Amino acid sequence: QVQFVESGGGLVQPGGSLRLSCAVSGIFFSVHDMDWYRQAPGNKREWVGGIISSGRTNYEDFVKCRFTISRDNTKNTVALQMNSLKAEDTAVYYCNTHPPSGRWGQGTQVTVSS
Fold first, then answer.
1. Helices (H) and strands (E) in the chain, counts
2. What is the average per-residue pLDDT within 26-30?
3. Who's near 34: CB < 8 A, 6+ residues apart?
4. Residues 6+ apart with CB under 8 A from 3
C-alpha cells in the first residue's frame, strides 16, 4: 500500500522560508503525478500545487511565485519549497498522488507567526 511521510514543518516568522519533504513508498513513484495539499484549522483540505511525472508543475493562485514543488525520482520524494510565508499559510501540509489515493500521511505542521 502507498504510504506518505511528510516532514520539515515548524514555526517560522512571516516572510521566512521552509522546505517540506514527502517520502513516498508502496508505488512506482516515478510514473505518478504528485500533489501537495494543506488544511488549516476549521477549514477543508485544499490543493496547493502539483508536479507531474515529467516534472512540470502547477500551483494554486494563492501560492504562485512563493512556493516551488520539485521531485527526486531516485529517492521517491517530493518537496515543497515555501518562501515569503504568510500567517495564512499556517496549516498541516500533506502530499498525495494525483488523483489522491485513499490514504493520507500524518502531515507536517507549518505555523507562520511572529
1. 0, 10
2. 94
3. 22, 24, 50, 51, 69, 71, 78, 95, 96, 97, 98
4. 24, 25, 26, 103, 105
Nearest 5°: phi and psi at 88? Answer: -75, -5
Closest CA to 67 of 77, 87, 82, 57: 82
- Return the pLDDT at 64: 84
Is pLDDT at 93 greater than 90 in this prediction? yes
Instruction: Give me the chain's average pLDDT, please.
Output: 96
Taking the C-alpha atoms of residue 56 and residue 66, their distance in angstroms, rounded to an integer, is 16
**What digits encode the pLDDT tens for the residues 42-77?**
999 999 999 999 999 999 999 989 999 999 999 999
- Sort strands 10-12 and 108-112 into parallel, antiparallel or unpaired: parallel
CB neighbours (10 Å) of residue 65?
A: 9
Q: Are 106 and 44 in contact (CB under 8 A)?
A: no
